[in-house]
Amino acid sequence: MILTLQILLVITSLLMGLSILLHKGKGGGLSSLFGGGMQSSLSGSTVVEKNLDRLTIITAVLWLAAIIGLNLVLNYDL
User: Fold this and answer.
1) Nearest 5°: CA angle at 6, between 77 and 52?
2) pLDDT tens track for 3-28
3) Which portions of this protein are annotated as coiled-coil regions (predicted)?
């Protein structure tokens, strides 16, 4: 059980980091420093952004559940 939760935690951490990095920059901050502020035809549509938002939220919820579950298993030795 502990190994399963640890694997889930690692996978969701990687997916969440990747999905956050895939988001389009909304301001003139660090994203414009690396070329995120440039307008291009490959920037995607609003449907892609909405689906990426959903993927990020689902991954964050799974990540949080893995952390809470791992904490419960380690503290109460279920």
Assistant:
1) 135
2) 999 999 999 999 999 998 888 766 55
3) none
